Amino acid sequence: MNTINKNRFLRFLYDCMIDVLGGLLIGIGIYNFAVNAEFPLAGISGIALIFYHLFKIPIGAMTIMLNIPIAVGCYKTLGKEFFMNSVRSIIITSFVMDYVVTLLPVYSGDRMLAALCTGVFSGLGYTLIFTNNSSTGGMDFITMAIKVKNPHISLGKIVFILDMLVVVIGGFIFGNVDGTIYGMIVAYLLTVVMDKIIYGIDSGKMTFIVTEKGEEVCNKIDQYSGRGSTILKGKGSYSGTEKDVVMCACNNKQMYVIRKMAKEVDPMAFIVIMESNEVVGEGFKAE
């Protein structure tokens, strides 16, 4: 086996391991916590759960059947590579959900705890698969298609909107108001977990410091926080005065020090601090 084929084989094994782990987490959330608690879930899994309750059709098998028309409709938008990755993920996660997770004990305690565990476990599972350039199909295809068309919208928000629709429909079919509320909690938790992991781990702060002492501010920031910065040239729209705009990205804990240092150098500095969902580059996440 040459080096190229070996690397492809190792990559394929890695992808399969991610799918198995993701399917295990999703399956635990659905089978071991949500099913017994009897509250509606979101997405294709939620629709499959409705069929499971009504006709006892295995969730994994029903998921595959529901995925076919959606996959065909989203193929062009998502592209061949993502589509093929998703086919692999669908098959592996469905198998894990139907034949592995069902061997584990089912939680029969408090419904709120079941909802919390469903949201966290499922959110972790979906995030693992999403961040590996794949999906579990169904609503994931629709979600990613919307994301491609609207890249400015966070993945979690798209998932939340679609999930809420399915939860409400499921709650109406089951006729269980409490279950619907729990389903909404699950949908919200899943959204939070996904956004925090996908964006939160690499999130931080971004600051723009408008000052006449750009070089001094940069040196002070580097000296006390170890963060590099960039000096942009700016001009006041009213006064017409030329000023430096120091741009600096940092983690959440460093921002207080940077703000303090900037004010020590230039008490008249105008400082804007904002959230940064993701920072890629030297000193941060490697692309």
Write out the strand line-up for the largest beta sheet, numbering strands in chain order: 2-3-1-4
Gyration radius, rounded: 24 Å
Residues in β-strands, percent? 5-15%
Distance between the termini: 29 Å
Order of helices and strands: HHHHHHHHEHEEHE
Mean pLDDT: 79
Helix content: 55-70%
- The number of helical elements comes to 10
Q: Strand tally, please? A: 4
Largest sheet geometry: 4 strands, antiparallel
From the spread of the alpha carbons, the general shape counts as: elongated
Sheet/helix structural class:
alpha+beta
In the predicted model, the low-confidence regions spanning at least 5 consecutive residues are none
How does this model look, in words?
It contains ten helices and four strands; from the N terminus they run H-H-H-H-H-H-H-H-E-H-E-E-H-E. By secondary structure, it is of the alpha+beta class. A four-stranded antiparallel beta sheet has the order 2-3-1-4, covered by helices on one side. Strand 2 and strand 3 (242-250) form a beta hairpin.
Task: Give a brief description.
The protein has helices at residues 3-37, 43-55, 59-78, 80-99, 111-130, 139-149, 155-174, 177-200, 214-225, 255-265; strands at residues 204-211, 230-235, 242-250, 270-276. The protein starts with a helix and ends in an 11-residue tail after the last strand. It contains 10 helices and 4 strands, in the order ααααααααβαββαβ.
List the helices and strands and how they pair.
Elements: H1 3-37, H2 43-55, H3 59-78, H4 80-99, H5 111-130, H6 139-149, H7 155-174, H8 177-200, E1 204-211, H9 214-225, E2 230-235, E3 242-250, H10 255-265, E4 270-276
Antiparallel strand pairs: 1-3, 1-4, 2-3
Helix pairs in contact: 1-4, 1-5, 2-3, 2-7, 3-4, 3-6, 5-8, 6-7, 7-8, 9-10
